[in-house]
Amino acid sequence: MKMLNDKWLAALVAAGCIAAVAAATYGCGTGSGAMLPILCWGVVLAAGLFWGLTTRRVWRRLSERQRYRFLFWSYAVPFFAAMPTVELLFAETLPQFDRLGLKLATAAATGLTIALIYDFIHKNRQNMRKKIVAGNWKMNTLPAEGVELAKGVAAGRSEVCACVNFIVCPPFTHLAMVAEALKGSDIALGAQNCAAEAKGAYTGEVAAQMIAALGCKYVILGHSERRQYYGETSETLNKKMAQAYANGLTPIYCVGENLAEREAGKHFDVVKAQIEEVVYNLTEEQFADLVIAYEPVWAIGTGKTATAEQAQEIHAYIRKVLADKFGAAADACPILYGGSCKPSNAAEIFAKEDVDGGLIGGAALKAEDFLAIGKGFAK
Length: 379
Ligand code: 13P
Fold this sequence. Notes:
Layout: H1 6-27, H2 32-54, H3 56-59, H4 64-89, H5 100-126, E1 131-136, H6 143-156, E2 164-169, H7 175-181, E3 188-191, H8 208-213, E4 218-221, H9 224-229, H10 234-246, E5 250-255, H11 259-263, H12 267-278, H13 284-287, E6 291-294, H14 308-326, E7 335-337, H15 343-350, E8 357-360, H16 367-374
Parallel strand pairs: 1-2, 1-8, 2-3, 3-4, 4-5, 5-6, 6-7
The structure holds 1,3-dihydroxyacetonephosphate.
């Protein structure tokens, strides 16, 4: 289904506003002569809100909670403020508006109605984002074992909701064989890295062009293990991203803080910098074809998982940082969680609004577990 864009959302909320104002007016027993100006007032409010919702600066910078408040007050207050004008004009026909309590209740009902309409639309919107469960096999399995693993995933795939997009990322050496094993299934293939250069005298490197030729659709870039053990910097990653896009690969760009950074409360700044230094250099078209994976280093392979609340908090923050640059397109960008994700905790984490799936390490090495993680979505 096509993504509900901001203009549609705004139009729906605005229409809801007019309906709410009309209903509130009707509920107060006003005569038909008063309906027209009140409806006009509703249209003005609706237009103002449409502007607010489609203007990046106003809407994009608000958190979800602030958005509800914004909607509530931006309807309730002007509605209440409009009452004296309406009363002045229609003193005869509006006897019931004399009562303060009634006015307040009407204004509050209007604000609440709008906030609820937004809530309803917003929940449906979130479901439209791509759900992804990606397996990062790291430096594990021999080729034959990798083929078995891929076959196992393909065989059990039908037990999981078709709405989940599975990706497996084996070592380079297995790609061709795993591609063969996955033929006929809807499981996508990804690589764990690619070279920063297109081709040439770079001993030991594997070009994006090569992995694309083997059938890869995705490539993991900026994994913390590559940043930490192989000194990958934002500068290198910018080049790798360019290579990925030039060869039709979708990057799964990893961000995340280490334990010391988390303990020092610097995690927001760390992920922000990792995004600004690389993702901000993408074109809008490239950004539309990007997956982000948030992987706190302290949770990778340690058995320590971020709580669902911690994940949601930083995923929402990442989306806000993305929105600051790319606006509404940030709503469509899948943000995966990675770090000791397993069948027992996936459902709780995936249930969070801004978590669109997982990048799985250890648990991706067992077809059963990997598929069970995918079931975390099928609620
Ligand atoms: P674990 O799931 O083993 O913690 O690894 C996460 C990861 O690094 C995926 O890229």
